[in-house]
Amino acid sequence: MMSLNFQAPKHEKLLMARKKNCTVRLGDVRKQYPESSIVWITTGKKYEVKKKLYTAFIDKVRVKKFSELTSADLGHQNPEINTTEGLRLDFEEIYKRRITMDDIVTVIYFSEVL
């Protein structure tokens, strides 16, 4: 079973409140997360124990430049971030590297399976 893991503690809160149903990942990860797949939504830092929150269905996967992210992408990724610049700065903190508006990202929309 594949998983979509979220490392930042703030994401666990959004996921548990069902306010987050999209994730933006650096690079083209379409092959790892094809549409109509079933995944576990998990949280936890790299190389540490993960916590399974729920099972989800991957509804839609799109690859685009960071600058092409829409307000819908941003709102579903994190309702507290409403600009691509805000998300870019957040990503630089998470990924510990410089992110540009030309970087390729994969937008993955998912919904909980009950």
UniProtKB/TrEMBL annotation:
InterPro entries tied to this protein: ASCH_domain
Taken from the record, one Pfam family name reads: ASCH
Q: Where is the ASCH domain?
A: 6-112
Its protein name is RNA-binding protein
Q: Which organism is it from?
A: Megamonas hypermegale
